[in-house]
Amino acid sequence: MTRTGMAVTTLALLGMVASSAAWALVMSAINVSLTGEGTGKMGMALDQDKVQEGRVTFIVKNDATSETHELLVVKVASADAELPYDAAKDHVNEAKVTKLGEVSNLKPGASKMLTLELTPGTYKLLCNIKGHYMAGMSALVTVTK
Ligand SMILES: [Cu+2]
C-alpha cells in the first residue's frame, strides 16, 4: 500500500470511529444519586427525568456514608399510580409490580450501571430496602417517543 493509500484508509477508519461515537451520544444516560442514613430522611435525585425511548443507562451512585441502598426500575400505568405496598414488611411487594431491572445491594460510595431498553411510558425508580421507599427513595422517569 502506498503512503497516500494508507492515509486515506486511516482517515476512513477515523471517520467510522467518529460517527459511532456520535451515535453513542444520542443514547440516554441518567445519573441517579441515592442518599439517606439510618432512620432519617432518604432520597433519590436524578440529573434528568425525561428521556427518549430506546437504550437508557442508569448510572447509580450510593452517596450515603453508612447505608446500603438499591435501585429498582418499575413500569407504572401513570405518574400517580400507587405501588402495592406490604405494610407488614415495610416495602413494595415486588411480586406484584412489573420490574424491569435492578441494582441491588449497593454499598456506601459504590457506583454501578444498569442499561435497559425502555419503551415510551412512565417508570418509577425506587429503593426497596425495608422502610426506604416510604422514607423518600423514589423518583419518576418519563420515556418519550
Ligand atoms: Cu435505600
Describe what you observe in this structure.
With 145 residues, this protein is an alpha+beta fold. It has a single domain (27-144), classed as Immunoglobulin-like (Sandwich). The chain contains one helix and eleven strands. Strands 3-11-10-5-8 form a five-stranded mixed beta sheet, with no helix packed on it. A four-stranded mixed beta sheet has the order 2-1-4-9, with no helix packed on it. Strands 6-7 form a two-stranded antiparallel ribbon. A hairpin with a 7-residue loop joins strand 1 and strand 2. The radius of gyration is 20 Å and the shape is globular. The termini are far apart.
Could you outline the blueprint of secondary structure elements for this entry?
Elements: H1 3-25, E1 28-35, E2 43-46, E3 50-52, E4 54-62, E5 69-76, E6 85-86, E7 91-92, E8 98-106, E9 111-118, E10 121-126, E11 138-144
Parallel strand pairs: 1-4, 3-11
Antiparallel strand pairs: 1-2, 4-9, 5-8, 5-10, 6-7, 10-11
The protein binds copper (II) ion.
Copper (II) ion (CU) is lined by residues 42, 69, 127, 129, 132, 137.
Question: Helicity range of the residues?
Answer: 10-25%
CATH homologous superfamily heading: Cupredoxins -  blue copper proteins
Say which molecules are bound, naming each kind only once: copper (II) ion
The CATH topology: Immunoglobulin-like
Q: How many domains in all?
A: 1
Q: Look at the structure and give the CATH class.
A: Mainly Beta
How would you classify the helix and strand content by structural class?
alpha+beta
Instruction: Describe the global form.
Output: globular
Distance between the termini: 47 Å
Question: How are helices and strands ordered from N to C?
Answer: HEEEEEEEEEEE
What value does the Rg take, in angstroms? 20 Å
Widest beta sheet: strand line-up:
3-11-10-5-8
Major beta-sheet overview: 5 strands, mixed
